[in-house]
Amino acid sequence: MSAMERPKPGDDEEDLLRQQEEYFKKRVTPSVRVVNKRKCDQPNVSEFAKARHKKKMPVHTVVQSVLSEVKEKLPQCNNWSFSCSSSKEGFPEVFARNETVTGLGTSIFSQHVNVLNPLNHENSLKPSDCAGTENEVVKTIGSKSYILSGNDSMEIHQENVKKLSEMSVEEICAEQKKLKETLDPKLLQFLLSRRKKSENNVNCDMESEEIKNNMCDNPCFEVEGTDQTSAEFINVLCDSENKWLHMNVVEEEKLQWVGDIAPAEPINADHQYNARFDFQGLLMPYTLKEIDVRQGLYHHGMEQQRPGYSIEELYQLSRSTVLQQRIVALSTIGNILEKIKKGFYDVCFNDNLLSKFLDHDLFLLLRFAIDENTEIQLVASLFALKNLLCSDVDELCLDRAMGCRRSIWQPCLFVMNTLSDEQELKESEDELKDYKMLKIDVIKGALRTDIILRIRYILEVLKPGPKATILCLEILTRIVRHSYESALAITCCPRLMKVIVTNFIPKNWSTMVDDVRPLDMQSVYNTPLAEALKLLRIIACHSLKLASDLVHKYSIMESVISYISIDPKECPMPFREVLNLILESFYIWQTFLAYNLATHYFIDVYPLLMRLLQFHYNTTSMENSSSSFSYEHGTALISLIEQAVHTSQSQFENNHHSSRTLSYCHVKDFAGTLEVCLSKWLSQLGSATDVTFSAMKLVGATFNCLASLYSFHLVQADSDIVSWLSNLESFCELKVLQYLKSEGFKKATASLQNSSCLLYTGEVGSKRSPASLPSLGALLWKGESLTPVLQPKSPIALLGGLLNFLVVAYTKHKGLNSKYVSALMEDSAFIDYIKCINEKASPKLASHWFARLEIDLLTSFLKITYLKSFHLHLIHLMAFKLVTLIQRDEKYLLHDVMSQIVFNADYFQNSCALSEKMAALQIDSSQSKVVPKEHLILMTCQELPALWNCYKEYLNLGEDLTLSNHMATNNLTATKQGSELFLPADWSYLPIIHLNNNKGTEQKLYSDSSSSSSAAVAAVTTALKWVFLVEELRPDITVTLNVTDKYCCLSTVFLCGSDLFLDPIIHELLFACFRRLMQDYQKIKFPSSFYEMYTQLLEQFAAVSYGDNLFGHFLLVPLQQRHSTDLRKQVWSEHAAVLRILSTPVQQLLFPVNEMLEPCEVDESLLLTYLHCLAMGTVREIWCPVLYLTAMHHVATFINLHNETDLAKRMKLKISKLGNKELQSLLVNYKQASK
After folding, report:
1. 3-class secondary structure, 866
2. Is 515 helix (H, G, I), strand (E, B) or coil?
3. Quick one: pLDDT at residue 225?
4. Which of 501-505, 1180-1184, 1231-1235 has the highest mean pLDDT?
5. Does the keyword Transcription belong to this entry (predicted)?
6. Share of the chain above pLDDT 90, in %
7. In this structure, are residues 1073 and 1028 in contact, taking their beta carbons and an 8 Å threshold?
8. Which residues make beta-bridge pairs with 1002?
9. C-alpha angle 339/523/562, rounded to 5°?
10. Confidence band of 1170 (pLDDT split at 50, 70, 90)
């Protein structure tokens, strides 16, 4: 913008008008703004505005008051006084400008006026005055020369100072002007710059000295003892101020970091303190002097004397703007989570540490962190996220169990909720926020955050290094294990499956780097990864449809076959990595075969499989404990062959010739090679001293595969059964029996108890996982060891395969000698193991996923003993125990155990003859109306098949519930409640409980009938007969059941129908069971929740009992003095109507009447109620003899024992006023009468 044109001499009127018009058009802001001060006095102006305006007003002159808002940049505001007089024109005289003065800092005019102002000088300067004394000149120009250097520089400087002190100001200015005119401008500039630099150095030296003095005076920098580190640092800091930028200001808060830290205050050993962790995730002690401060564990503000970082500080660092701090924090959090999963901190904290992490939104923090594209942060955040979601030990144990019987089934890590909670969750799931869903179910909440899309982006676009890639695959594997819906979310994610299959399951693996692990490669793209194959295997286990897509849509079987054919010695990968890849290839193919998929590949690679099996026969030895990789490879190979046998047998049984792709001829030739392998390995096992789990698993898998081949062989039309049976008998005689009598077998059975999940007495490892993120708990509590069945010396897999083989042998060869079972039963260690199982009350690991291996072993053992009838009593106890240990997904095992052993009459007559048992159970002849026990026992034993049919219906254990039907499913993943125990310990009462739960439906169906339905009578009769038989003949089985639970279950009979308990048979059976129950009446302890059920019983008794003595007897049990007062108050106050009809005689009580009388009642309200009921005639001896005696006793006894209390006096006063003199006399004389 051009400057405005100003008036100048010679302008006429037209020029001035033109300039005015231009000024108004441009509307230039004036340099001075006049403000009307009176506006501040208006009433609508705030007091704050007035005060601010007043503060801004200068008070020097009137002119200044008017122009108070004129803003001009002045160095300072002083009072000016000019000594010069006015000229004749009335204006100050004009002074000439000194051209040597330059505008540095202040304006040139200000510098001239400052010189002329007399207030700035002691005396008014005149042109003839000198510049000042030598000291004043030194203050102005300095005490030394800034230009000269050398020995005589100081002498020359002093001469210059003396010369300048004798000169006036005008003379000095004239000399300056002369020098500027005569000297070269470059030389003059050099001299000025040299002086300026020297002045800065002098100023810094002065400030440095000041800083040093301040530090010495500050107590924060005092150094104790001989440690001079901090003091030396401060001295170096002060001496080096000329070298370091911005060190001329003392910042005490920052300098405190270089001071010594005060020692931590001592605490008691049992005192709790805030947890701090090092960078490896290890919990730090309260103090540790050995830690060097240079390790970086003291860089925190809170608790500076303690090493390590708290969870809060790590959270804060993870959100830092500094990349290195975020990486350190995320890595440390990942290490902490890893230690938690390994059981390091199981007993270190009062609360579950993993739950605390999740409650404070750790998942969201990590989810946001993986959105960062920087690979180093991506690796750290994925590492922490993987350790949060996944359990490495669980995955390790699942891989370790592969090769065992039915190990291709995979667990479902779904969040378990109660039925009502699950229904509410489904109804309100859409309304829940993401963070709320994460509190309930972490995986389901994670899916809401589009974590799958983010992982797809990482793998497809970012293509990170090996570690991040493998972490992504492991996270996806954990998500798949959650549920079928999670697996579907991954398979339906656009391009994700294609990215995984194309990049990590390539058909051509020749590009792999020689002898380098995937984690050590620059990139794992176009490199086969076992983690990718495992992910696809878990996906395939969820659904036949998903497995079919992998085979047909993505064609992964071509890659799988190429991996199986790899020779580890020729593959350009480390041996272990190659083996893991081959194992996963075998197991994913086994999964496909279970769905009847990829069967034609088995025919194509038959020569390869036979060659591999022959290789193991030649090279694999049980005596070489270091060849665990060979054991695992052999196990995977034989498991694949076994699954092929099952698939071909399934196709044969379905009898679909057109769709049959795998037949017996494709698998029968493996039998011979497997027999010679097993013969060799059994011979070596008999004398081997150090046998590993992998070696025993290989032998167990061989037993299972041979058993499947033998079972399939006998159903073939063209098979030579005679020669086959002869060959089987010869093999068992020469090899199996030899091993059963060997030292190796004794060592195996001796380790059974230490390898048993059912005998484990410690805490379960799954309790360290929060409910929203469940785990298998394969690592036991405190991280002491793995689950027992997978211990390094566990023989469960070996013995399970051996017993399964013997079951098939005895089933197919009816004439096979029983000496093999005898050899098993004669082993003392094995029998002790069975006895310990029977005696164990409630195994903590019964519902553990890996307990299935042990339950399968026990089931096979029961089947063998059933076929040859050994140790009937012991086996019967074992069967009763086993049915309560079988998990829901394996309920098909229950059918044979229950039908063959549990409900078998032969097993009730084993240890002693039934007649002897009944002879010992004599009853009192005076009880003529009571059915003798002998009669009930005989009747029940004869009806055991009918009882089994009834229970089979209620338990839903039909004939079609077999192993073959169980395996022929559309998925190979456990159900959401698959690991729960199928039957409760009190399963004998289930028909009664079921009938009571559905009584509303039953009443609606039979509303027109006055009697109970025949089906209900049959169900209750069956249950009571079975309960009575088990209680009488197998009391050691029911001794572990809670007596209170038994009472409640029997009481439920009265609630099942209005007159169901009046049926004669039910009434007699119920009394027999109740009589047996009352032998342990002292063990009955009613919980607070029983109050509601007792209310229902009282209402039912008052409504339909007709004063039944047995029903009344049941009601009297909770009224004993040992039980809660609230139960007694229910009868005497809320339901006093029962007092009129509860007529059970004292003589018929099945427990001592003294239980109703002692100790004496002390509850005031209850005592007054007793007296009121007696006085009003509500309770009488003829109506309710037991409760009449109870009321009389407690009222009279309390008065006698507590005669001086106010309550006793009040009661005596009321008794004295009774109109019933007979009652009065009984109460007064009760003590004498009782004597």
Report:
1. helix
2. coil
3. 38
4. 501-505
5. yes
6. 46
7. yes
8. none
9. 100
10. very high
CA–CA dist 579, 596 (Å, integer): 26
- Residue 1159: asked if its preceding bond is cis (omega within 30°), the reply is yes
Question: Each residue of 483-505: pLDDT tens digit?
Answer: 999 999 999 999 999 999 999 99
Q: Do 408 and 542 touch, CB atoms closer than 8 A?
A: no
Cβ pair 979, 888 in contact under 8 A: yes
CA pair distance 501, 918, nearest whole angstrom: 71
Phi, psi for residue 1009 in degrees, rounded to 5: -105, 140
CB atoms under 10 Å from CB of 102, counted, come to 8
DSSP characters for 983-1033? S-TTGGGHHHHHHHHTHHHHHHHTTT-SS--HHHHHHHHHHHHHHHHHHHH
| Alpha carbons 888 and 340: distance in angstroms, whole number | 30
In whole angstroms, give the CA distance from residue 816 to residue 726.
Answer: 10
Q: Which two tokens stand for residue 551?
A: 């085979």
End-to-end CA distance of the chain: 128
Q: What is the model's pLDDT at position 678?
A: 95
Q: Reply yes or no on whether the pLDDT at 843 is more than 70.
A: yes
**Tens-place pLDDT, residues 554-581:** 999 999 999 998 887 777 777 788 889 9
Question: SS3 for 1133?
Answer: helix
- Residue 809 contacts residue 710 (beta carbons within 8 Å): yes
Can you name the residues that pair with 786 across neighbouring β-strands?
779
User: Over the stretch 889-908, which tens digit does the pLDDT of each residue have?
Assistant: 888 899 889 999 999 888 88
pLDDT above 60 for 1191: yes
Residue 572 and residue 510: Cα distance in Å, rounded? 8
Segment 1022-1049, tens digit of pLDDT = 999 999 999 988 888 888 889 999 999 9
With H, G, I as helix, E, B as strand and everything else as coil, classify residue 46: coil
Provide DSSP, 4-20.
PP---TT--HHHHHHHH
**Phi-psi map region of 343: left, alpha, beta (phi>0 left; psi -120 to 50 alpha):** left
Cβ–Cβ contacts within 10 Å for residue 1121, how many?
16
Residue appearing with tokens 């709320």:
436
Tallying the residues shown for the chain, one arrives at 1235
Contacts of range 222-226, beta carbons closer than 8 Å, 24 or more positions apart: 223/260, 224/260
What amino acid is encoded at 594 in this protein?
A: A
Q: Decide if 1132 contacts 1166 (C-beta within 8 A).
A: yes
CA distance 1036 to 1034: 5
Query: What does the alpha-carbon distance between residue 123 and residue 130 come to, in Å, rounded to a whole number?
Result: 11
Q: Tokens representing 53?
A: 């305006």
Tokens 């079609």 locate to: 960
Give the integer Cα–Cα distance in Å for 710 and 810: 11
Phi, psi dihedral angles at 887 (to 5 degrees): -80, 165
Instruction: Return the residue matching tokens 């805490």.
Output: 763
Residue 226 corresponds to which tokens in the numbers above? 């001989």
* Conformation bin of residue 479: beta by default, left when phi > 0, alpha when psi is -120 to 50: alpha
Show the tokens assigned to 319.
Answer: 């959100």
Cα torsion through 566, 570, 575, 578, rounded to 10: -30
Other CB atoms within a 10 A radius of the CB of residue 297 amount to: 19
Burial class (CB in 10 A: 0-12, 13-18, 19+), 667: buried
pLDDT in tens, 662-686: 888 889 899 999 999 999 999 999 8
Report d(CA 57, CA 66) in Å as an integer: 9
